[in-house]
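Per reviewer request, we include the raw input and output of the structure prediction for the construct analysed in the revised manuscript.
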Amino acid sequence: MAKVRSIGVFCGSATGRSPAYVKAARAAGQVIADRKARLVYGGGDVGLMGQAAHAALEAGGQVLGVIPEFMIATEGLYEAAETRIVTTMSIRKNMLIEESDAFLIMPGGVGTLEEVFDVLSRQRLSQHDKPVAFLEVEGFWEPFFKLLYRTEKEGFTPDGFHDHVSVHDDAGEAIDRLLREISD
């Protein structure tokens, strides 16, 4: 039996101000389930991550959540999903990265940014070669990529570093690209 491909989803534990963020998160969860992949996420029952997980399970997909025990009080526990409860944020992030074959990055706050920088840093340091796709919603990631390009221009990041990620306006397009790259 073939191994189920897993897509790590990093996004906010809040829904943000625009309804477009929730729509995108639910679309991503739906598409991941439709493509017979497993959604791997931060384990909470709130925000965009909760919306993506709910949509994946509602579509008959598989979901793995990883959450530190101390966060259950604030983020809740989505009991319908397979969940691993860990002790620290570092263990959570390491497990999310290990359990994922690719990464879909959606809008979020400082926690999401921390996860993004860790995934990109590990990729840069050859600790993984897993594909990374950003889901662009209402121009959310434009300032982020402007900063990354600046770090390249100023010689702090190798030229072409941004070539190792893709940016998409459509969840289906982003997930299909990740799954193609996993299969190659």
